[in-house]
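Per reviewer request, we include the raw input and output of the structure prediction for the construct analysed in the revised manuscript.
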Amino acid sequence: MKSGEVCAITLAASLWAGRVRIVKVVEKEEATRSLADYASEIRNDAVVVTDQGQPVAVLVPIENADLETVSLSTNRRFLDLIERSRSRLREEGGVSSEEMRRRFG
């Protein structure tokens, strides 16, 4: 935080992947710093932006992902398509890689 800047950041603990993480929570009206400033703080933890105490946005660290992966992971239509495909696989079964090699060899 810059010298003299007033910004209310709350630290909250959350359980994620079996470990406790510290999450920074900042109220939207108090989030006056640049996005770059907040992004530089997220090495292993998230920064959650709230509006009257309700989460409205989150800045999270990303590892080993390209722009396409990030874009698709937040695309509702793509996620619905994946879920439909998984449901169909559970209901109808699928074709093993060995069977595909045998068929198309």
